[in-house]
Design goal:
Elements: H1 2-31, H2 36-64, H3 74-97, H4 106-113, H5 120-131
C-alpha cells in the first residue's frame, strides 16, 4: 500500500508540475508578456493546489474502492482520478482565485470551467489514478501448459 501510494503521489506531482509549467508558459507566450515572477507565483500556486487537491481527493476514493474493478484497470482509474480531481479543482480555483467570492451566476461558472488554469487538476488526478493499480489484485496466468 505504501509503494502504491508513493508511486501515485510521485506520478501525480510530476505530471502536475509538467502540466502547470506548460499552461503557464503557453499563457505567457500567447499574451506576449514574459515574467519570471508571474511564472513562479501562478505556476507554483497552481502546482501546489493541484497536487494537494488531487491527493486529498483521490486517496480516500481509491482506498474506499480498492476492491472494485474500476481501480484495478489503469484507464478506468485514470478517468476516476481525473474526474474527481477536476471537480475538486473547480471548487478550489473558485475559492482561491475569486478573492473569497464564489461564482455567482451561470456565466461565472462557465467562465471558470473553461479556464485553462483548471487543466493541471485532471492531469494530476489522471496520473494519480494511472499509477494506482498494482498486480497484487489481478489474476496471474502461469505458463504450465494448461
Amino acid at each position: 500500500m505504501i509503494a502504491r501510494l508513493s508511486r501515485s503521489i510521485g506520478a501525480s506531482a510530476l505530471a502536475c508540475l509538467a502540466g502547470t509549467a506548460f499552461i503557464v508558459l503557453a499563457v505567457q507566450a500567447l499574451s506576449g508578456r514574459w515574467s519570471l515572477h508571474n511564472t513562479l507565483d501562478l505556476g507554483g500556486t497552481l502546482f501546489v493546489l493541484a497536487a494537494v487537491a488531487s491527493v486529498v481527493t483521490c486517496l480516500p476514493i481509491f482506498v474506499l474502492l480498492r476492491g472494485f474493478a474500476i481501480v484495478s484497470a489503469r484507464g478506468h482509474a485514470a478517468l476516476l482520478g481525473a474526474g474527481s480531481a477536476a471537480l475538486t479543482g473547480t471548487v478550489v480555483v473558485a475559492w482561491f482565485f475569486a478573492d473569497g467570492v464564489y461564482p455567482r451566476d451561470i456565466s461565472d461558472w462557465i467562465r471558470l470551467l473553461s479556464s485553462v488554469f483548471l487543466v493541471p487538476f485532471p492531469i494530476a488526478g489522471a496520473s494519480f489514478g494511472y499509477a494506482w493499480p498494482s498486480h497484487d489484485g489481478r489474476a496471474h496466468v502461469h505458463a504450465r501448459g494448461v
